[in-house]
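Sequence in, structure out. Go.
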Amino acid sequence: MAEFSASPEDRPSEISDTPDSSQNSSGDFDPCTMRKTKPGLKRLFLTLTVLFSFFLGAPFLLKSIEIYRSPLPFRDIDSLSDSVGSSPLLFPCHFQTIFVGFDNLDAYELGSSIRDEMRKLTEHPVCGACSGSNYTVSVTVESASGCARNYNAKSSCMWRCGAIGELDFDFGSGSGDDGVDEFLGSVLGSCEGLRKVYSVVVVNRGGEIRAVVGKYRHGWIVGRVLGEGMDELVARVAETFVKVFVNGGKESGTIHGEFMPVGSDGRIILSFNLLNADPTDWIYDWDFQRIDEILFTPVIKALEHVANISVESQVLYHTPKSSISYWDEKLDSYIFSTKDLPFFVNSNEWHLDTSTAAGGRSKILQFVYIPSAKECPLLLQLPNGEISETNAFISPMWGGVAVWNPPGCLRDSGSKHPSWHTISPQDLQKVFGIFMGQLRQLFGLKSDSLYVGASGTTNLLASEKGFTEWELDVLSRQHACFNLVSCATTLGSLSRLVQSLPRMIIMDEIGKQVKFSLEAAKLTQNNASLGIYDASAVSSRQARLLAEDAFFHPSMMSPFFLPVSIHVVLASIREWRRYKQERAKYLAWKEKAKQR
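Output:
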């Protein structure tokens, strides 16, 4: 009999009796509670490694966040803040007046009149000025019969009678001002030293009245002075003492914060930049090293008590300005007005960050802008419609810009092959003379050579150092005051901050800085009481620097590093829980597989 095999459809019972292991496995596997592969250790190993490294650094971390508080002299800080806030820092000043060619004048009465007039002008003394109760006024009256002095005259600073007769040139001529200044400096030089004495020599002669203040610490008034009356003469002498020698030629002797370029560390960087707007027209360079040696070295030396100054320079190309100028047919020049000054500086093209050594308030940027041929010559028009003589402008706390037009630049000039040029020493001297005036303005002094007061006009002689002796005294007094106030404010803020946060760490270094800052502040006050202006400025700089360093000490931020370690520990715990959960899933699936 023939045999045949049955089809699969004819054998259902056979198929059902032989179960498929893969189907059975898939039906019993729960992905939420099981997993077929063993969980890896890489994530757990990395997490535990990071945690272990933190444990190794735990002693250092605990040491860094240890609540250690160096004792701070809170009483001394409060005492300094109270003394600075209640009474401004005042200096003793000494003045003397010499009257030559006068008869029948009482030296005692003149001294009392000048002193009373000065008290009217210093009724409300400001910080850094002279104390009305601690200055002396000495008077010497020289006549044909001899010399008469009041009781305030000091033997070491006595005027040598008959000295005016030794002058062999006209005392009142403008051409002889420098010679008179040097002569009076030699005669009054015995008064120089720690005890600064400011002198005014009044000479009664014929002619127009002229008043001049020299490069040192003296001035003179020459002419028919009695024609105005003694009251007016006394008022003029008092105004010269207070408004010029004490206040620096300003109405008030206060120092303005916006004209304060010195940083908290007492350093200033003068950054000079030569800008070639379009080098396809012309390319200019400069001999900056020569200018630095001739002009800036004496200035840096003169200001060493006020600030530590350094100088840098660079030459830039393709530096157009941002503002738009227009052509003036009448002036035959391109004009930009004072309204365009906020848009003149092109911060996108001008590389202002010339150095990382200092920043912010402690850097003064000075630019010499050479316009392109398309806008040359370029002139600055003042609000009154006149053209600026300096062709420059200043920005407080920032610096200044001087526009220098190349000689012979024409409106339609265009050279396909620009040549290299060097700015002549004469032109460079003029440009940096403008910058010197701007630097004086940044320090709060007058940039011109005239003082116009209520009693008349006074000529102010310039010094080759850029700053006269009496101007340096003004800067020393004002900066000593400014730094002392800043020191007291910073230490007061630090004291309040530390006392409000009991768990803030105060390292020993902070305590030492606060202690030395208080000592420097006390030294500033002592030097000020003795009339030592230079030493007061230097010690005040140190007091302010130490106070700033203490307030911004890095260790005061250490408590804020603790949350970092907390996140690492939490991440490790989370990773360990995940690993245990995944391993439990794997063991559950393995146990299920064994049961099958």
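Check: The chain is about 40% helix and 20% strand. The two ends are 44 Å apart (CA to CA).
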